[in-house]
Amino acid sequence: MEQRALWDEPAQGSSEEAPSSGSTGERTSRVRPGRELSLQQQAATVAPAVSASPPVLASIAVARPVRGEFTYSVPESLVSQLAPGQRVLVPFGRGTALGFYLGPAARPPGENVRLKPIQRVLEDSPSLPKDLIALLRFAAEHYRYPLGEVIRGSLPPGLSKPVDEKEAKPDVQQFAVALVNEVPPSLARAHAQSAALAYLLAVGGSAPLEEVSHAIPGARAHLKSLASKGLVRIEEKKLEAGVKEGLIQGRPDRLTPEQDAAGVTLREALDTGAFQPFLLHGVTGSGKTEVYLRAAEHALSLGKGSLILVPEIALTPQLVGRFRSRFGSEVAVLHSALKDRERLFHWQALRKGEVKIAVGVRSAVFAPVENLGLIVVDEEHDPSFKQDDSLRYQARDLAVVRGKQAGAVVVLGSATPALETLENVKKGRYRLLELKRRVDDRPMPTIEMVDLRQERPRDGMMTDEAPILSPPLLAAMEETLGRGQQVILFLNRRGHSTVLLCEVCGVSLKCTSCDVCMTHHRSQNRVVCHYCGLAMPVPDRCLECTGPMLKLGIGTERVEAEVLERIPTARVARLDRDSATSAEKLTEMLAAFARRELDVLVGTQMVAKGHDFPGVTLVCVVMADTSLAIPDFRAAERTFHLLTQVAGRAGRGKDPGRVLVQTYNPDAEPVKRVLAHDFDGFAQQELEWRKALAYPPFARMASIRLEGEHPEQTASVARHLGNIISRNMPPASVGVRLLGPAVAPIAKIRGKTRWQLLLKGPTHVALAPLLARVEAALVDVPSAVKVVIDVDPGAML
DNA sequence: AGCACGCCGACT
DNA sequence: GTCGGCGTGCTC
Questions:
Q1: Cβ(A437)–Cβ(A283) under 8 Å?
Q2: Which 3 state secondary structure label does DSSP give A248?
Q3: Which of A261-270, A276-285, A542-551, A562-571 has the lowest mean pLDDT?
Q4: What is the mean pLDDT of the segment spanning A334-345?
Q5: Average pLDDT of the residues in A356-384
Q6: At what angle do helices A583-594 and A191-202 cross, to 10 degrees?
Q7: Parallel, antiparallel, or unpaired for β A331-334 and A357-360?
C-alpha cells in the first residue's frame, strides 16, 4: 500500500489523459498542454484542406458553476486572435458569460446541442499563463470543482468579470517610511500611533499606507500625525517594478554551517532549472527564513521568479518585512484585503514579469509569477494552507504540483513537518535539508512536565471553582517575574468555563441550535455558543430541573483571573479572539508586551504563532490535553505541532528559555515526545500507527459532508449516498473503505443536522470513480440538503 | 449562478 | 379568472 505523492499520481482524467470513463454528458476532449501551435495551425492539422472547411472549434471553461468544458465555434474574424489563456465573452444559456479559452476542441459536442460562436475576445495577451492553466485544471479535477469557477477564483477581481481588459494604472501609492529605528518613549501615551509605528518597523521600515491601515484600522491618520512629528515620512510613489528601495536591513554575512550547506544545495538545484522538491526541516530559531531569502536571491540572479507562501500573513509581519527589506519593490505582498485595483496591479506586474517575487497566503499559489524558479512554503504543516470552502485545495500540495509543472525548486519548510511531507522524504521523493542547531548556538528551551494528577493546584480565594495553576507552575512564574523576565501562558480555549453542568441532573447547558456546550464568558456576563455566536444571560439554575450549576472546563479568562489572584503584582493581559477584537488591539497588545509593559500574556493560538519576544523566558502550557481529545486522527500530530510552536516562544533572546507543560495525560505520546525534543521519535511512532490503521500518509481520504434542515431527510440522503458508494465499491483487494454514513462529531450547527461519509483508499485514483458516482447522484438530492465533497480533508470535524 | 419553465394560493 | 410563490433543470 504505497502512498504516492499528489503530483506523481496520474489523476484520472487529468490533462494528460482522455476524459474519464465515468463522465456523463458530452465534454470536449482535453488539449495536451505544452504544445504551442496557433489555432490556425491546429485547425489545419485536425481538418486538412477540405473544400467546405468545418467550423473551427474552441474548448472554453465557462465561469459559471457548471461542470466540464464547453465547445464553441470560432468566427472567422477571431481565428487569428485566439490564444490559450485568454478571457472571452460567450453566449451562455439565455445571456452571456465570461469564459476562458483553453485550446482547440477536437470534436464537436453531441448531436442535440446547438453550437454557438464565441462573441468576443476580451484581451490581446492571455491573462493566464500556460503553466497556470495546467495547475488550475489539475486543481479542478483533483478537488472536484468546476474549472471555470476555479479559474475565475484565481484571478484578481478586475479580471473575473466579463469586461474588457483594463490596464491597472500605475497608481500613485502612498508609502510610509519610518525615520527612526524604534518606537520612541515620547509616544508612550499615544497607543494608536505607537502601534502604527511598531507595525511599520516590524515590516521593514517602509510599507504602503494601504497595507498598514489594513492591519491597523485608522492608521492613515496616525501615520500622518507621526509624519508631523518627524518620525515617519509619507512618500508618494508610483508603483513601479524593479526599483530597489527601502533600507536594506540585516543581511547577515555569516551563516551557520547548516544554513550554508542548505543554501549551496538549493543554489545547485536552482542552477539545474529542473523540478526538485525539498523539505527544510529546521528547529525553531534555526534561521530557515535566511535560507529562503538566499534561495530567492539566487533565483533572482538567474532571472527567475519566486513564490513564497506563508500562513496567515497578518500574523507574520516579520517575514514580510525581511523579504521587503531585502528585495524592495521586487516583491509583491499579496495580503488578504488589498483593494481590487491594487490586487490587479500586483497581479499584472507579476504576469508581465516586472515583479519577480510574490509573498502571500495560500491563494498566492495561483499568482502568475513569470519564469518561476523557486517556490517556498513556510511552516508547511500549518492547517491554514487548506482552504475550507468552495475550492477546497491544499496550497502546499498544489505548490508541489506547480513546481513540477514549472520545473521549479520547491522548498517546504517547518520545524515540525506534516507527516505526509515526512513520508515523502522517506520514500525518496523529497530531499531533506536539516537545520538542527539554532543560530548563535542558542540552546533549545528545557521542557518539563507537570502531572496535574499529582501536583494538584491548591485552592486560593476563589471558592466556587477548582484552580488550574499548579504549585510548580506558580513557583516558576514567580521566579521568572522576579528576574524581571516575561511569561506566556497558553491555553487553547476561550472564555471562563467551557461547560456548565447541573449538579443534580447532570445535564450540561447546550446551545439551542448547535450540538455543543455553551461557554461562560464572565467578562461579558453571559454564555456564548462558539459555533453560531448565540449568547444569553448566565442561567443560575439548571433549565431542566432548577438544580444548581457547576462551572467546569477552563478557558483563558479563568486563567487570567487566577494569575491576577495568585500573583497580584504581575501585569497581566489576555490575548484571544475576545480581547483582540480588532487588528489594532491585537497589534497594540503584542507591542505592549514586546515593550515589556506587561509581564504575563495569557492566550490561545494567537500567542503561539511566530512572534519574537526576547524577554520571554518561561512558557507554560496550561493544559496540553485539550487538543488531544479531539476525535480526529491528526489530533496527536496537531498537539505536537502546537506544543512545539508554543515552546519555541521561550528563550528567543540571550537568556535561555524554559517550558512547563501541565497535563492530565503525562503518558500521551505527543506530550512525552515534545518534552524530549524528539520529533523524529514522535513521527516514527505516529507513522507506524497511521500505517496500521491505514490513515494518511498511507492512504488517501475524501469526506462527503451533508448538512440539512430536516434530520430525517438528511439522514436518508446520507444513507442513499452510502448505498451508492457501497454498490460501486471496487473489489476488496483494492483496499477502499467507506466509513459511515454517520452523524458528524458535531451533530448540529446553526440548527442544521450534519452527517458525514469518509472514504479511504490506497491512492486518490482509487477514490476518484466513487467520488464521480457521488457527484452524479447529487443532481437528485433535494436542495434542502447541502452536500460537499472534500478531497484530502484537513480535519474530520 | 442566472433564468427559465411549471404547477398551486389570494387578489382586482 | 390572473399575478406570483420559489422548486428543479439546463446552459456548448
A1: yes
A2: coil
A3: A542-551
A4: 83
A5: 96
A6: 80
A7: parallel
- End-to-end CA separation in angstroms for chain A: 26
Q: Give, in order, the Cα–Cα distances in Å from A394 to each of A307, A362, A383, A582, A792.
A: 16, 8, 9, 28, 8
The x, y and z cell numbers of residue A106, run together, are 477536437
Closest CA to A292 of A383, A370, A407, A409: A409
Q: How far apart are CA A538 and CA A519, in angstroms?
A: 10
Whether pLDDT at A10 is above 60 = no
Are A133 and A85 in contact by the 8 Å Cβ rule? The answer is yes
Q: Nearest nt (C1') to A64 (CA)?
A: B1
Distance of CA A459 to the CA centre of its chain: 41
| In chain A, residues 63 through 92 whose Cβ sits under 7 angstroms from any atom of nucleic acid strand C | 64, 66, 68, 70-73, 90-92
Q: pTM of the entire structure?
A: 0.86
Q: Express each pLDDT in A419-472 by its tens digit.
A: 999 999 999 999 999 999 988 888 888 999 999 998 887 775 554 677 899 999
Local structure of A58: helix, strand or coil? strand
Does any strand B atom come closer than 7 Å to the Cβ of A96? no
Task: List the one residue out of A202, A239, A413 whose CA is nearest residue A317.
Answer: A202
Supply the pLDDT for residue A40: 53
In this complex, the answer to whether residue A217 has its CB under 7 A from any atom of chain B, a nucleic strand, is no
User: Of A511, A519, A483, A786, whose CA–CA distance to A656 is shortest?
Assistant: A483
Specify the length of chain A in residues.
Answer: 797
In this structure, are residues A146 and A66 in contact, taking their beta carbons and an 8 Å threshold? yes
Which pLDDT does position A251 carry in this prediction? Answer: 79
Percent of chain A scoring above 70 in pLDDT? 89
Q: Grid coordinates in use for A12?
A: 484520472
The pLDDT of A266-287, averaged and rounded, is 95
Q: Is A107 exposed, middle or buried (CB count within 10 Å of its CB: 0-12, 13-18, 19+)?
A: exposed
For residue A497, what is the enclosing H or E element?
Answer: strand A497-502
Q: Tell me what pLDDT residue A193 has.
A: 85
Cell of A344: 490587479
Stated as kind and residue range, the H or E segment containing A619 is: strand A616-621
Q: Are A179 and A233 in contact (CB under 8 A)?
A: yes
Instruction: Give A206's pLDDT tier (boundaries 50, 70, 90).
Output: confident
Provide, in whole angstroms, the distance separating residue A97's CA from nucleotide C10's C1'.
Answer: 15
Distances, alpha carbon A306 to alpha carbons A21, A272, A365, A411, in Å = 38, 16, 11, 11
Please tell me which residue, A340 or A394, carries the higher pLDDT value. A394
Average pLDDT, chain A: 86
Q: Which nucleotides of C are covered by protein (CB under 7 A)?
A: 7-12
One-character DSSP codes across A712-737: HHHHHHHHHHHHHHHHTPPPGGG--E
- Return the amino acid letter for A645: Q
Cis peptide before A697 (omega within 30 of 0): yes
Mean pLDDT, rounded, for A72-91: 95
| Nucleotide showing the shortest C1' distance to residue A27 CA | C12
What is the mean pLDDT of the segment spanning A212-221?
A: 77
